Amino acid sequence: MQITSLRKGVLTASALAIGLTAANAAMAEWKPNRPVELVVSAGPGGGSDIFTRVVQAALTKNDLVETPLIVVNKPGGSGSEAFNYAEDNVGSPYKVYFGTQDAYVLPLGTKVNYAMKDLTPVASMVFDVFILWANPKASGINTAQEFVAKAKENPGKVRVAGAKAKDADETVVTLVERAAGIDLAYIPYKSGSEAAIQVAGGHIEANTNNPSESLEQWKAGNQKPLCVFTSARLTDKTVVADGMSWADIPTCVESGIDVKDFVQPRTVWMAADVPPEALAYYTDLMKKAMDTPEFKDYTTRNVQITKFMTGDELKTFLAEQIKNYEKIYADNNWLLPASQ
């Protein structure tokens, strides 16, 4: 009897192993067989758009995909349009969504047509630092100290542009207001690049965004970085413009604005109920994109913090982020009653 039981155990184990091998093989073999939409929660030219198009180029140029990748911008509703689209396309393995913290922050303070249960997190790939910018030629502001002084002299009249309402850009502006004891007028645009253009044109006094969205304006002499929201200065000493490098930008804390380590994740999502094999495919694909020369150049050029997170690590990070933003939104009186 013992021999018979042992043989049954061996047969059962063998059958299980064969089943698992077949399942793993199916997951490894899944690939899209028609064009895939890369849906961006921001307008053309913004940080999320640039991020998405870098991923598209990296995957295409290095022959890591066999089907076309089509970038689709859906910036409406501060980016909620993109995630509403996910809610409308449950289970689709042919749509991948690119955003920031907007995916999980928007439902906290805005009535939207989706919830976090409608999204499947794929990966967080990099973090953008945030910088306070001005156009000295138009505003007369050359330093963060001068920015604060002007705001104190003109309560509620110094305008600061940013991408979207009640998102990262406006959030950091409220943190600056509290830290410096000033009152600013926040003006939202569809993307950080639009906000940068307004400052470069002298229509708005300042803006806050990530480096990629104002880099070209800085090179052209139409914007100047006043301070960076990190606890230590950036390390890249490559001269960008006017003899100034990223490492020459003072931290906002150095400049008397006690806001540090405010960074923005670049995140990738799919809709709810997508096939596990499709999720595994795109997770692996994003990791491969990060290893390409195009993506490495992108992160270096924009002084980003590279950190790939997926699975349980990403879920833990998202839970912590949501908790932090709930507190900030409550302090700003932005938190919807249902979120409290």
UniProtKB/TrEMBL annotation:
<feature type="signal peptide">
    <location>
        <begin position="1"/>
        <end position="28"/>
    </location>
</feature>
<protein>
    <submittedName>
        <fullName>Tripartite-type tricarboxylate transporter receptor subunit TctC</fullName>
    </submittedName>
</protein>
<dbReference type="InterPro" id="IPR042100">
    <property type="entry name" value="Bug_dom1"/>
</dbReference>
<dbReference type="Pfam" id="PF03401">
    <property type="entry name" value="TctC"/>
</dbReference>
<dbReference type="InterPro" id="IPR005064">
    <property type="entry name" value="BUG"/>
</dbReference>
<keyword id="KW-0675">Receptor</keyword>
<comment type="similarity">
    <text>Belongs to the UPF0065 (bug) family.</text>
</comment>
<keyword id="KW-0732">Signal</keyword>
